[in-house]
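Morning!

This is the sequence you dropped in the shared folder:
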Amino acid sequence: MPRRALAPFPGIGHHPKPMTGSDTPPIFARGLVKRYGDLTAVAGIDLTAQRGQCLGLLGPNGAGKTTSIEILEGLRTADAGEIRILGHSWTGDGRAIRERIGVQLQDTRLPDKLTVDEILRLFRSFYPAGREPEEVLSIIGLAEKRKSRTVNLSGGQRQRLALGCALVSSPEVLFLDEPTTGLDPQARRRVWEIVEEFKSAGGTVLLTTHFMDEAERLADDLVIIDHGKVIAAGTPRAIIDSLGAEGVIEFALDAAASELDYASLPEVVNVRRSGSQTELAVRDSSRALPALLDRVRGAGREVATMHIHRPTLEDVFVTLTGRHLRDE
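The structure's back. Tokens below.
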């Protein structure tokens, strides 16, 4: 997808209806609850996203993040909690919200026989104001596919078209549910640029993603949820620092040694085993590493592989949930 500069997003101030409270964040939820019979999918979640910022929502599959974002989009009804989107409630003024938000679903089904251009013109017709389809085609990099039927698009091209449908109304708030799934690296970076330009113009984004690098780059604040509850919240840096580690030592031994006690080693704050691989989060690698090697050799073992890196968001996520973000 060719890279090109964008004109400033005109969404902010484009719609005449003001927010009902000047201090109300564009996205606000308190005590969000959703139940399905005996299953509580969302158990009292609080979410807030300010103007010009991106709130990232992370969680393992089944954690409740898609249910949460669908409630905020007005696609599901919460059993309890307060929700305000641009100062409005879905029960009180859903139409005012729909005219001012853009939504890219995790799986968007579009009519197979319509062309890319026809799809964008159809979505543009739903709103009193917005961007011209030709401009959106340029933004999402599908200008050369304008006459192609959606059935003939690749999965990544359909993802970009779904993003274009979310942008065609010049929204003030964007809901993006895994927007770069299926995209090649160049197309992913272009989506990142679109989101960053949208934020720079004062827009607000709620993002779910399975890519940690995407979350770290785009999100000003992150909320990690598991089993329907918030287990960590803050800036990406604050969440990484909460691990209390200066480094992570990943290693595998030449033979199994499950009886070794790594938690008692100096400077170790967390131990995680995954198959033959062991990960130690440590406060000081220079002290922890020699002690680790002494213990391994004392047990008559040798280190087969080893890698040391600075703590990442993925390390914190695995520590909190016991799973990698992309685990199925």
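Headline: The first strand starts at residue 27 and ends at 36.

More detail when I'm at my desk.
O.
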